[in-house]
Amino acid sequence: IAELGNGMFYFVEKEDNIAPAFSDCMGGLLSVVAQNIQLKIGIAPETNVIIKELHTPFKVEEVIKRKKFLIKINDLYSEETKDIVLVLKLLPVSAPLSQVPVLDLSVKYLRHRQRECRD
What we know:
six-stranded antiparallel β-sheet; about 45% strand; about 120 residues; 8 strands
């Protein structure tokens, strides 16, 4: 149940282990900095790029085939990092690559302590 809900679980073998398990769980709740994170990854307008592969353990919705994705990440804890790997196919362009936008990225999340939504 905990894994399906992306939660935590503890095996408490002895009564003495209840307090440390509860303390650890509460500490985890207090260190959450963002919830219900939605990362949008899309191809920048007028760009000759194809997203060939997207590697992540998070739920991915393909909004436009190989061009726009929505990634749903549950909680983010203080000082935690999340990795999302993209494999892109870059087609020839006339301008220097340093001047060509490749991706449009946006993130939306709920700030845990302030209970407000941020873009």
